[in-house]
Amino acid sequence: MNAKVKLNICGSEYYITSEDEEIYIRSIGDEVDKRMTEMLEGNARVSTTMAAVLCALSYADDCHKANDAADNLRAQIKEYLEDSQRSRLEADEAKREVERLRRELQGLRLRLAEMDDR
After folding, report:
1. What predicted TM-score, i.e. pTM, was given to this entire model?
2. Which partner from 10, 69, 93, 99 sits 20 to 30 angstroms from 30, CA to CA?
3. CA pair distance 29, 102, nearest whole angstrom
4. Tens-digit pLDDT profile for residues 58-101
């Protein structure tokens, strides 16, 4: 379902059509409006277009940094999963070795018992 939402950003109206929820679209619009308004109020030489470009650059920077951080987290998770798999294999191998040693010990005890019976 597409939502058509009217946003007011720095005094201009924009109609946005999106599959996202209206409340989400409005929150994004409010955030952009707030950021641009702060830029405009903070420097009289900044035009609305300049504020929009600066805002877009800032959001693009945030997006790239977030993607880099996500890639880094994915790489760390992959390493953790590989370490976990390796540890599981080592644990399984250790369990097999313990079982083999138990059988060997049991056999040695039986042989010792047989020798004591003689």
Report:
1. 0.67
2. 69
3. 69
4. 999 999 999 999 999 999 999 999 999 999 999 999 999 999 99
